[in-house]
Amino acid sequence: MDDAKRAALARAKERLDRLELYPRPVSTRAVRIWVVPWLFRLPWFRRFDGYSAHLTILLRSRALLDDGDLVAHELCHVWQMQHHPVRMPLSYIVRRYDGNPYEREARRASGRPDSGRPGSPLNSDCHR
Ligand SMILES: [Zn+2]
Fold first, then answer.
1. 4 Cα–ligand 1 center, Å
2. Residue 91 · residue 100 · CB < 8 Å
3. Where are the domains of the chain?
4. Who wins on pLDDT, 122 or 11?
5. Chain-centre distance for alpha carbon 120
6. I need a surface site. Which of 34, 49, 69, 116 has the fewest CB within 10 A?
7. Within 10 A of 90 (CB to CB), how many other CB atoms are there?
8. How confident is the model at residue 98 (pLDDT cuts 50, 70, 90)?
9. pLDDT of 124 over the 50 cut
């Protein structure tokens, strides 16, 4: 991972470390950021600018490394999965995206409580 990605991850961790959502702070030790524009051209991913998995944050473009809210949002999902590795991803199957409590928590944690709602200019985050 290059310096810009490491710095983006460190800034996001700094933001999340101010919150006390889970017993342990988020660990970024094994987390990697990948910039994969081609992925976000696929139908499922088209509506997102970022996406997260257990140890991975995927971004649509390199410029989004400077979007502190987005990277913090994605890292919050990584944090959630560090505490609820099965329940959190499954929650997206049983709950609608907008009403999903993990999604709402990540929006609050990233300072974008309204993002993702229809008509919002910030309809652009992640998931799982
Ligand atoms: Zn999200």
1. 22
2. yes
3. 3-110
4. 11
5. 18
6. 34
7. 12
8. confident
9. no
- Return the pLDDT at 128: 40
Q: Across 42-46, 65-69, 112-116, which has the greatest mean pLDDT? A: 65-69
C-alpha 96 to ligand 1 mean position (Å): 12
Task: Using the predicted structure, report yes or no on whether residue 119 has a pLDDT greater than 60.
Answer: no
Ligand 1 centre and the CA of 76: distance in Å?
A: 8
| Alpha-carbon span 122 to 128, nearest angstrom | 18
**Rounded distance between C-alpha atoms, residue 69 and residue 96, angstroms:** 22
Distance 61 CA to ligand 1 centre (A): 17
